[in-house]
Specification:
heterodimer, A: 282 residues, alpha/beta, Elongation Factor Tu (Ef-tu), domain 3, Rossmann fold, 2 domains, seven-stranded mixed sheet, globular, B: 321 residues, alpha+beta, eight-stranded mixed sheet, four-stranded antiparallel sheet, 22% strand, binds flavin-adenine dinucleotide, binds iron/sulfur cluster, binds FE2/S2 (inorganic) cluster
């Protein structure tokens, strides 16, 4: 039996570095205590951890990359409310807590040898970045890798320089788009204007073998799934990382229910095929 | 033969209750000053209301307190909260509530077991009693739950005791001096019980949902009083000393806030929320998919201020009758 540890008590972690990515989103590097490392090393992109901010509470976060060789973990977090607000006030050295990893990750073994299309909207880039990093590190195990990433405005585009640099190395194709660009210098960048589905429309790819991984705000999923299916991607190969309010992370509090499934144990990565007939899923 | 001495005469019930106190604090069905049936401490046998129909709040309160401290944070680390468990004997639990506890066990004792729940559960001795169904009940006919340590089946002038665990056997031998040989146990009366059937079929586009949704006030009473509703919210409170307390408390999927995430609500309408609860009750959730967690206690129907009766969904349609 797993330790009770796993259900409630977070393992201490220290904030060691923070990098602001946009006005409300910051990349936090945390160093979990040694006894968390073995469990965290099993992390699969798409899984999530429960991050505790003492005095505020606990929130689910999908690490933005696999744990670094030194055991540290990158979490890209947007300030939206109670817990994230306090997290954003923390300075290096601050004490945090971590449990996990939890949930299903992307089916990496199954995806091997196949082209992968990553579709990220807004903050959805966070969980997809860990998938992307994994794919790029094991570059020759996968087919063509394409990332399409849409943000509201150029200044809200996360990891832009990093992604551009990675694309320049030739390992992947990168398409960026913004909903609108203000008429200032910052709008003057090499990215398209329009929504993610518009980008997908003009895209030629091998739909019969491609795996598509989608993560973004709730309204994005419905139209992207329809577009992908129309393009010929089977519902079983459309992977969606869903977001729900989560409390326990281990299938007990029922906060994350969708139909007869729970996002924290059956997901957060689902195949579009699994979600058919669940009206509240997308 | 010693074995057949399992009959407790009515006149010896009070003495029997005293022997139970050896196994923990004795609780059972009582009636409050305002006339509400509830499980509470039995200080004296006279408080016991053995002919009760159902308590307002089910026994889940002993295993999942309404509000519970799960963690406390001090000097840089989180520690497990106190379960607050002492030995407790819960006397007079009906079969439906015993089955309710059995369902909660499946959820909270599954690997990894919930620490608070499993501690309290291991301190809990369950003594079931038979019951008389009323118009609200709809558990399967003749059901006598064995999900307890000891079961008391009432007959004309006493009770037939049957043990269902090692602890039950210990209770029996502790009370051996009070027991005699008795007549065979009577058949349980069959009431108006009806079995929910084929809920999946009625689940999706039944016009009854619209009828229900048009009157439901989302008060959540049906879920609060349900012996198998267990969903909870978690909150953390900072203390001035720099420490913090993390608590969990009962939550309710009938409240609009339950399905919220940033920028969306997956169940904004009453209809969706009612349906969601129903689906969970009758068709189960991961990993108990397919398991019906409605034990037929009838509480939800009794407490609903607008008389919503989800049984209408599962009852045979008029033309089928
Ligand atoms: C599997 C998973 C992975 C996630 N990964 C990331 C990530 O990498 N980076 C990131 O910044 N955020 C991520 N989130 C979202 C993050 O958990 C929420 O932003 C966070 O819980 C908000 O907490 P809060 O106390 O600051 O906000 P609150 O004060 O609780 O609420 C503020 C707003 O956020 C909404 N909200 C609350 N909890 C959630 C939730 N769990 N999911 C979505 N909306 C919520 C509320 O409805 C409200 O509109 C993820 C969520 C899930 C379920
Ligand atoms: S759904 Fe109603 S009848 Fe069924 S167990 Fe819950 S409260 Fe009792
Ligand atoms: S008790 Fe009745 S009115 Fe209240 S939430 Fe339940 S169904 Fe709706
Ligand atoms: S987060 Fe508690 S059940 Fe999924």
């Amino acid at each position: 039996m797993k330790q009770a540890q796993h259900t409630h008590v977070p393992i201490a972690a220290r904030l060691i570095e923070r990098t602001d990515l946009s006005e409300d989103t910051t990349l936090f590097r945390i160093a979990p205590e040694e006894r968390a490392l073995a469990e965290l090393s099993s992390f699969v992109p798409g899984q999530f951890v429960q991050l505790s901010v003492p005095g505020a509470g606990e929130i689910p976060i999908s690490p933005a990359d696999l744990p670094a060789p030194d055991g540290t973990l990158e979490l890209c977090v947007r300030r939206v409310g109670h817990v994230t607000e306090l997290l954003h006030k923390q300075r290096p050295g601050a004490k945090l807590g971590i449990r996990g990893p939890f949930g299903s990750g992307f089916p990496l073994r199954e995806m091997a040898g196949r082209p992968v299309l990553l579709l990220a909207g807004g903050l959805g880039i966070a969980p997809l970045r860990s998938l992307l990093m994994h794919l790029l590190r094991q570059r020759n195990r996968y087919g063509e890798i394409t990332l399409m990433y849409g943000a509201k405005q150029p200044r809200l585009m996360l990891f832009r320089e990093e992604l551009t640099a990675l694309a320049a190395e030739g390992g992947m194709r990168l398409y960026l788009t913004v909903d609108f660009a203000p008429e200032t210098a910052e709008g003057n960048h090499s990215c398209a204007i329009g929504l993610l589905p518009d980008l997908l429309k003009g895209f030629r790819f091998d739909a019969a073998t491609t795996y598509a991984a989608v993560c973004g705000p709730p309204p994005l999923y419905r139209c992207l799934v329809a577009d992908l299916e129309r393009a010929g991607v089977a519902a079983e190969r459309i992977l969606l990382s869903l977001e729900r309010r989560m409390r326990c992370g281990v299938g007990r509090c029922c906060h994350c229910g969708l139909g007869q499934k729970l996002c924290c144990v059956d997901g957060p990565v689902f195949r579009a095929g699994e979600l058919k007939g669940i009206p509240e899923a997308l | 033969m010693e074995k057949t001495k399992t009959f407790l005469k009515k006149s010896r019930l009070n003495q029997f209750l005293e022997t139970l106190r050896i196994f923990g604090e004795l609780h059972g069905p009582t009636v409050s000053e305002s006339g509400v049936y509830c499980f509470s401490p039995l200080h004296e046998p006279a408080q016991l209301q053995l002919d009760y129909r159902r308590t307002q709040i089910p026994p889940k309160k002993y295993l999942l307190p309404f509000r519970e401290e799960i963690l406390h944070y001090a000097s840089g680390t989180y520690r497990e909260g106190h379960s607050g468990a002492g030995d407790l004997v819960l006397f007079g639990v009906h079969s439906c509530d015993l089955e309710g506890i059995a369902y909660l066990d499946r959820v909270f004792l599954a690997d990894p077991a919930d620490p608070g729940y499993s501690t309290r559960r291991s301190h809990l001795t369950l003594v079931g009693t038979s019951c008389e169904p009323d118009d609200f009940c709809f558990c399967p006919e003749g059901r006598e739950s064995s999900s307890c340590d000891l079961f008391l089946a009432a007959s004309q002038d006493g009770f037939h005791l049957s043990s269902h665990s090692a602890r039950g056997a210990a209770l029996l031998s502790g009370a051996a001096h009070l027991l005699t040989k008795g007549p065979p146990p009577p058949r349980r009366p069959s009431g108006t019980c009806l079995t929910p059937q084929d809920p999946q079929l009625r689940f999706s586009e039944n016009p009854l949902w619209h009828k229900f949704a048009s009157t439901c006030v989302s008060c959540g009473a049906c879920s609060v009083c349900c012996p198998t509703c267990y969903c909870f919210d978690v909150r953390e409170y900072a203390s001035l000393s720099g420490g913090a307390l993390r608590i969990r408390e009962w939550d309710n999927c009938l409240f609009a806030s339950h399905g919220e995430v940033a920028g969306a609500n997956f169940r904004p309408d009453r209809l969706e929320r009612l349906r969601y609860r129903f689906l969970h009750k009758y068709c189960g959730f991961t990993p108990l998919q397919g398991v019906n967690s409605c034990v037929g206690c009838g509480r939800c129907k009794e407490v609903c201020p607008v008389d919503i009766d989800l049984r209408e969904l599962t009852a045979p349609e008029p033309e089928e009758r």
